[in-house]
């Protein structure tokens, strides 16, 4: 379990990173390395060059500019969990961050790394889609903004070009209630099913699952007050997605998790309640 | 016996482990820390097929890769792990013409470091002709789809046993039920993986082998035997071992290849398993099916059990014992557990398959048998509408029945079976539980309690530590009065340096910090079986008591001569000897030692010079039974299928305790592993014979957040052996899975669920709940 041989370069600017990526098409960016390093050790990926972006100071910001919450791609999961601005302007991220791996993993893993890795069972890609966020990427041709809804193509697959680097994610201010729920076998594991549910307060909204289909999709849905009718709505919304497998339990869980995420959105009162107020959802085992 | 019990200071005390400071500060030295200049490292090319003929190999690119020193195949190293007598087949240490499981070593690449070895191993071209694999145990018994080994039947072990009068008793019972219990492949997943390093010493011609093993002398013997070398030419050193759990009781193909390579290259050579190799090639365990029929009466008395025990032994018998045989043969003999079920009929079939060989994992047969035995009792209770605790009471062996001969002829020494259950029921609050349960059920919440009353045969004459029924201790009071003792045990985290020192310090009359325990070096330790089968406490501890006592007698004799008092008037303690009632007439052990080694003319006639001796201890009984009760309270979420363990009680009886702190640590660890067995751990093979769970993101282990606080209480029913000690290394994992899944059955009783498999996954729960409403 040793990686194949590779070159290693540490950079301090995005320009420098992009230049290296352009010159070596099979290079990989390393930030937290929480997914990449295991893949390299299994020799499932064998880049000729690792471009270490950890030294780029310009990617480490969390800013609320009055319109957007902007999170630099090098911000660590634990920093997101702990950040007061994020708690204030997009509290669903604070809740979701705590479901990512364990403390040691959260201390290293980054927002940008997770967005780019595009594991369909992970929290950030679905958050970006659910929040209508835009992902800012920089390449040799300059900077472009990609709506998160257009960023994901499928399993571990995005529109990011090999010579592009994610710079930041730009999240518009929340208009409506947004709830979150996730279920995993053990605390910190990738989700068996997770969901973000947005409720406009008028019986309409969106559900964005993760761990259910090959990529996160923000599915519009009706949100009737009646539980049975809502279950029906979740089923309908699921019907529009390519489900990862045909296990009965997967569908069952997706419905239940959407329901829990919706209940979460209802419980938030003025703005938001702590996740501890919600029974179940992430019990150990 | 009376003398050893005299004023014990350290035995029974909650002494902190002397091992912990080095372990907790990262100072411990494990096998991979062994590094010497010029050491080469090995990477293995392993079979990607469960079953295939090797039609050719092209290893030229491997041989010319940078840093490569040797590339070995079976032709270089033609050694079989078993001579073919016992099981008719023996695993070649590197595959010979055919591969029989995914992960089987095929080629060994020896290079200057592991990176280069792995780079080169990738270049190996092995041509395989795939064959249909044998994957299903029941099919395998019928030799379907084919034989795993052309020259040997798939059923490599078959045994039948019937209590006299079984058929009549079974037929005459008023009630009958049937059930099939299945366990899923698991493995030990030690924190430190396996590893071996070998260093030839050109000066002496001897080979030093560093091994991460539970049995230093056994692996030395195995290597000597397999390589055809005199055993005094091999020195085995066991550094710190980060967990064994039975999995490190075997000698593996890699061990032999590494030692062979070191000899033939004249270089130090090391191999350390990575995690994927561990999951592929460490012995697996718990691949069993029990088809059970039970006869019982209206009052809940269980009369007879018929059981067809099957175990999938994998592609080869592990060396030097097959886990399939260990799991089934002992399960068949203790299947009635703590209950006086008078009749049993068992048929055992152990089969070959195209999977990794089965070996030992903590508890071996026990977690399986307890799961079956408690599952039977729960089924009887539910079918009769009786309380599960009450049915256990009705069937429990009574204190006046000891020594008790069970239906399979095993003799149980005294235990506290009923008492342990009653105490555990009290601690968990069973009296009020049914009320709480029904209130919560009305709210749609599903809580349950599972009771597991277990028996744990310990200190057996033969176990995975081999057929060495004794242990040995070399003890020396040094010329300064400090005490050094060496043992043949192979601790893998049990704290023997603490517990054995406690026993010896009491006997020799010195302080704990004056005793050093050595182990894990065949050059200094006396011959012993090693650690496994819950034998180190009762047998190793017994040997420590005997050795300490003999040394004590030597010191008393010497003191009596020097203090001019009768031997029976001499007392020993706190580093000195004195005349009873006259504390002024004293001499320190240091002074005694000085005389024994230096002023030897003062030694009384007939006493040897020095203070050194070797003592051995073999218990008179061939087995001593520990016992206890585990009760788990769980809540099952019928929506997600997740199970939360809310409350857990263990009442444990392992005879006299050497160190309650260490006993409780063993219990906590066993319960944690039980949670893994019950809910998480599962080695899954695809229908094509590929192992799908080759990393710890697929093979789920319990984490700290999954383990509840555990209430522990000790009962003490001493054994008849030295010190009254019984073994306790496995009981907690024997008892736990049955308690945990029993609690799931109880919680989901409204859905008519009776758990019939280990582990129970969220998918299972969802399936049961959604299909049986």
Automatic annotation (TrEMBL), chain A:
Sample GO molecular function, one term: oxidoreductase activity
Keywords recorded for this protein, A-Z: FAD, Flavoprotein, Oxidoreductase
Pfam families linked: FAD_binding_5 (PF00941)
This protein's record includes keyword rRNA-binding: no
Ranges for domain FAD-binding PCMH-type: 1-176
Protein name (record): Carbon monoxide dehydrogenase
Provenance organism: Sulfobacillus benefaciens
TrEMBL record, chain B:
Domain Aldehyde oxidase/xanthine dehydrogenase a/b hammerhead: 25-132
Alphabetically ordered keywords of this record: Molybdenum, Oxidoreductase
GO molecular function per UniProt: iron ion binding; oxidoreductase activity
UniProt cross-references to InterPro entries, sorted A to Z: Ald_Oxase/Xan_DH_a/b, Ald_Oxase/Xan_DH_a/b_sf, Ald_Oxase/xanthine_DH-like, AldOxase/xan_DH_MoCoBD1, AldOxase/xan_DH_MoCoBD2, AldOxase/xan_DH_Mopterin-bd_sf
Domain of life of the native organism: Bacteria
Cofactor: Mo-molybdopterin cytosine dinucleotide
Name this polypeptide is given: Xanthine dehydrogenase
Provenance organism: Sulfobacillus benefaciens
Source species taxonomy: Bacteria, Bacillati, Bacillota, Clostridia, Eubacteriales
């Amino acid at each position: 379990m040793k990686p194949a041989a590779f070159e290693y370069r540490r950079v301090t600017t995005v320009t420098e990173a992009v230049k290296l990526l352009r010159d070596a098409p099979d290079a990989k960016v390393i930030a937290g390395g929480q997914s990449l390093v295991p893949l390299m050790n299994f020799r499932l990926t064998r880049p000729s060059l690792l471009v270490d972006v950890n030294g780029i100071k310009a990617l480490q910001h969390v800013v609320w500019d009055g319109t957007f919450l902007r999170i630099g791609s090098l911000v660590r999961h634990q920093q997101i969990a702990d950040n007061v601005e994020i708690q204030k302007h997009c509290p669903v991220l604070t809740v979701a961050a705590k479901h990512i791996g364990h403390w040691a993993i959260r201390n290293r893993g980054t927002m940008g790394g997770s967005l780019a890795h595009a594991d369909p069972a992970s929290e950030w890609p679905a958050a970006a889609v659910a929040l209508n966020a835009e992902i800012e990427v920089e390449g040799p041709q300059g900077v472009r903004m990609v709506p998160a809804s257009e960023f994901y193509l499928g399993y571990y697959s995005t529109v990011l070009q090999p010579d592009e680097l994610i710079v930041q994610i730009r999240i518009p201010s929340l208009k409506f209630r947004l709830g979150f729920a996730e279920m995993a076998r053990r605390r910190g594991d990738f989700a068996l099913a997770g969901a973000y549910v947005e409720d406009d307060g008028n019986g309409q909204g969106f559900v964005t699952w993760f761990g259910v289909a090959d990529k996160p999709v923000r599915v519009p849905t009706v949100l009737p007050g009646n539980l049975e009718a809502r279950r029906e709505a979740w089923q309908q919304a699921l019907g529009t997605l390519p489900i990862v497998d045909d296990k009965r339990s997967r569908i069952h869980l997706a419905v239940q998790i959407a329901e829990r995420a919706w209940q979460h959105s209802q419980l938030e009162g003025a703005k938001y309640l702590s996740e501890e107020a919600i029974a179940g959802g992430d019990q150990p085992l | 016996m009376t003398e050893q019990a005299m004023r014990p200071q350290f035995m029974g005390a909650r002494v902190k482990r002397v091992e912990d400071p080095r372990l907790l500060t990262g100072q411990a030295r494990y096998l991979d820390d062994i590094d010497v200049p010029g050491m080469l490292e090995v990477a293995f090319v392993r079979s990607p097929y469960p079953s295939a003929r090797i039609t050719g190999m092209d290893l030229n690119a491997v041989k010319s890769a940078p840093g490569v020193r040797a590339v070995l195949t079976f032709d270089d190293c033609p050694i079989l792990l078993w001579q073919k007598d016992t099981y008719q087949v023996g695993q070649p240490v590197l595959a010979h013409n055919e591969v029989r499981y995914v992960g089987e070593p095929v080629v060994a690449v020896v290079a200057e470091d592991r990176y280069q070895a792995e780079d080169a191993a990738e270049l190996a071209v092995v041509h395989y002709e795939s064959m249909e694999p044998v994957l299903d145990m029941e099919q395998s018994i019928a030799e379907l789809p084919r034989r795993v080994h052309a020259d040997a039947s798939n059923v490599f072990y078959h045994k039948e046993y019937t209590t006299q009068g079984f058929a009549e008793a079974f037929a005459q019972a008023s009630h009958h039920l049937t059930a099939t219990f299945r366990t899923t492949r698991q493995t030990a997943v030690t924190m430190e993986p396996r590893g071996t390093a070998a260093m030839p010493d050109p000066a002496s011609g001897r080979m030093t082998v560093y091994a991460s093993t539970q049995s230093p002398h056994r692996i030395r013997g195995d290597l000597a035997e397999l390589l055809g070398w005199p055993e005094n030419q091999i020195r085995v050193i066991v550094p710190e071992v980060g967990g064994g759990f039975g999995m490190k009781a075997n000698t593996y193909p890699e061990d032999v290849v590494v030692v062979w390579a070191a000899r033939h290259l004249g270089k130090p050579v090391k191999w350390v398993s990575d995690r994927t190799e561990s999951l592929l090639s460490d012995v697996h365990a718990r691949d069993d099916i029990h088809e059970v029929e039970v006869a019982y009466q209206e009052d809940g008395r269980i009369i007879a059990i018929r059981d067809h025990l099957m175990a999938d032994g994998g592609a080869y018998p592990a060396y030097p014992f097959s886990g399939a045989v260990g799991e089934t043969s002992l399960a068949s003999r203790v299947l009635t557990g703590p209950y006086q079920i008078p009749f049993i009929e068992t048929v055992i079939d152990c089969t070959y398959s195209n999977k990794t060989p089965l070996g030992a994992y903590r508890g071996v047969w026990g977690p399986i048998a307890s799961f079956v035995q408690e599952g039977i009792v729960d089924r009887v209770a539910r079918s009769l509408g009786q309380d599960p605790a009450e049915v256990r009471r009705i069937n429990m062996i009574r204190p006046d029945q000891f020594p008790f001969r069970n239906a399979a002829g095993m003799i149980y020494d005294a235990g506290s079976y009923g008492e342990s259950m009653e105490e555990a029921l009290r601690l968990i609050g069973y009296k009020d539980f049914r009320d709480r349960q029904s209130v919560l059920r009305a709210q749609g919440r599903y809580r349950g309690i599972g009771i597991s009353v277990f028996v744990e045969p310990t200190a057996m004459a033969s176990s995975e530590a081999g057929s060495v029924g004794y242990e040995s201790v070399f003890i020396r009071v040094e010329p300064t009065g400090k005490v050094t003792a060496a043992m043949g045990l192979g601790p893998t985290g049990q704290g023997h340096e603490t517990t054995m020192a406690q026993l010896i310090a009491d006997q020799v009359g010195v302080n704990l910090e004056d005793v050093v325990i050595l182990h894990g070096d065949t050059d200094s330790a006396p011959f012993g079986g090693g650690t496994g089968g819950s034998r180190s406490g009762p047998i190793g501890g017994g040997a420590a008591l005997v050795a300490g006592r003999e040394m004590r007698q030597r010191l008393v004799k010497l003191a009596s001569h020097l203090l001019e008092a009768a031997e029976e008037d001499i007392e020993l303690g706190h580093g000195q000897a004195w005349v009873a009632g006259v504390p002024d007439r004293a001499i320190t052990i240091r002074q005694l030692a000085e005389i024994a080694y230096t002023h030897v003319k003062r030694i009384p006639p007939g006493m040897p010079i020095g203070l050194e001796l070797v003592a051995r201890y073999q218990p008179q009984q061939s087995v001593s039974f520990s016992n206890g009760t585990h009760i788990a309270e769980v809540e099952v979420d019928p929506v997600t299928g997740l199970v939360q363990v809310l409350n857990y009680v263990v009442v444990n009886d392992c005879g006299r305790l050497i160190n309650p702190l260490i006993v409780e640590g063993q219990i906590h660890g066993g319960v944690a592993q039980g949670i893994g067995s019950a809910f998480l751990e599962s080695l899954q093979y695809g229908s094509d014979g590929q192992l799908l769970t080759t990393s710890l993101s697929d093979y789920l282990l319990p984490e700290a957040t999954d383990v509840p606080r555990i209430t522990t209480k000790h009962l003490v029913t001493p054994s008849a052996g030295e010190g009254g000690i019984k073994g306790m290394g496995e009981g907690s994992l024997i008892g736990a899975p049955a308690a945990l899944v029993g609690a799931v059955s109880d919680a989901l009783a409204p859905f008519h669920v009776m758990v019939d498999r280990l582990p129970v996954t969220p998918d299972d729960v969802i399936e049961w709940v959604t299909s049986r409403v």
